[in-house]
Amino acid sequence: MAEEGLFHEVVGLVPQQKCEDGVLFPVVLSPNLKLAKTVKLTEAIKATRSWLDSILHRSGAILFRGFDISSASDFNEVVESSGYEDFSYGVGGAGSRTKVVGRVYTANEAPPDQNIPFHHEMSHAPVFPSKLFFFCEVEPGSGGETCIALSHVIYEKMKQKHPKFVAEMEEKGLVYSRVLGEESDPSSPVGRSWKDTFMTDNKTIAEERAAKLGMKLEWMEGAVRVIIGPKPGFKYDELRNRKIWFNGVVGGLKDKLNDDPSKAVMFSDGKPMPTDVPSDCSKIFDEECIALQWRKGDVLLLDNLAVLHSRRPLITLPRRVLASFCK
């Protein structure tokens, strides 16, 4: 199954799951080596955009492997070839990132030995990217896998495991709370300072920008508490006609300013979540996810509504994965 013969779909190269309609998650596409000329990923994407969109809609994830993509500039050209509009990672993002070139940023710059929990990119914000691109510039020796999971599957599993919690979450919504310092904390996966988060050192401007994102700021000595919500703990994916697990239930991370993850996510009425919910949810993620071990030159395309992603701790340095966000 390869539109115009430019791609060869590979089965068994990485762990995969079979979706309801038989399509695999993720779909793995490599260049068709039977062609007389070398297949360039940018040209193949431009020629098969509609077909790739249909595959992404059905699977939620496409891994392009075996193409000659070696630099951030190459990756930027791939992103541009998709035809998707740029989603600038700016005000409100929690992770520390650095712009590399064009539409390309570093992935989360948290210390490599730390785990980054499963999440939809910018699920806390009123506007979030619909598509995500990732690119492996430097292949890790071991560890550092990017794990992906189908959001509607997680929702259904959690509803089976904790029906009362899911019903209460849907009825009340969730409130998120996190303290941000004046300076970014490179030791934390979500240690972006309030100045970097809101791109200003003016508290009034920060409050105005926070309000546009549905956030409330409570100023503290040398820091600020950011309160988000109440927000629904799920979303309805209208294109696929199903509910998805769109929240930060497992996202409570400890750092220098946030020492109690249980206070990071609560019901909108102030009631804490049951203590076993985050751990049970994490177990379901571990059971249902696909762990992708990066290879140099890999490009991963995710539908941000259909798929959650995470990062496992890196065992052997180095590792360099870049990211790009699309509307």
Write the layout of secondary structure elements.
Elements: E1 7-10, E2 17-18, E3 24-25, E4 27-31, H1 41-47, H2 49-59, E5 61-64, H3 72-81, E6 99-101, E7 104-106, E8 116-119, E9 131-138, E10 142-143, E11 146-150, H4 151-161, H5 163-172, E12 174-181, H6 194-198, H7 203-212, E13 215-220, E14 223-231, E15 234-237, E16 242-245, E17 265-267, H8 276-288, E18 290-292, E19 299-303, E20 307-311, E21 314-316, E22 320-326
Parallel strand pairs: 4-5
Antiparallel strand pairs: 1-4, 2-3, 5-19, 6-7, 7-22, 8-20, 9-19, 9-22, 10-21, 11-18, 11-20, 12-14, 12-17, 13-14, 15-16
Helix pairs in contact: 1-3, 4-5, 4-8
Structure overview:
With 327 residues, the protein is of the alpha+beta class. The chain folds into two domains: 3-141 and 292-326, Double-stranded beta-helix (4-Layer Sandwich); 152-285, Double-stranded beta-helix (4-Layer Sandwich). Helix content is 24%, strand content 30%. The chain has helices at 41-47, 49-59, 72-81, 151-161, 163-172, 194-198, 203-212, 276-288; strands spanning 7-10, 17-18, 24-25, 27-31, 61-64, 99-101, 104-106, 116-119, 131-138, 142-143, 146-150, 174-181, 215-220, 223-231, 234-237, 242-245, 265-267, 290-292, 299-303, 307-311, 314-316, 320-326. Strands 1-4-5-19-9-22-7-6 form an eight-stranded mixed β-sheet, covered by helices on one side. The protein has a four-stranded antiparallel β-sheet with strand order 8-20-11-18. The protein has a four-stranded antiparallel β-sheet with strand order 13-14-12-17. A hairpin with a 4-residue loop joins β15 and β16 (242-245). The two termini are 28 Å apart. The mean pLDDT is 91.
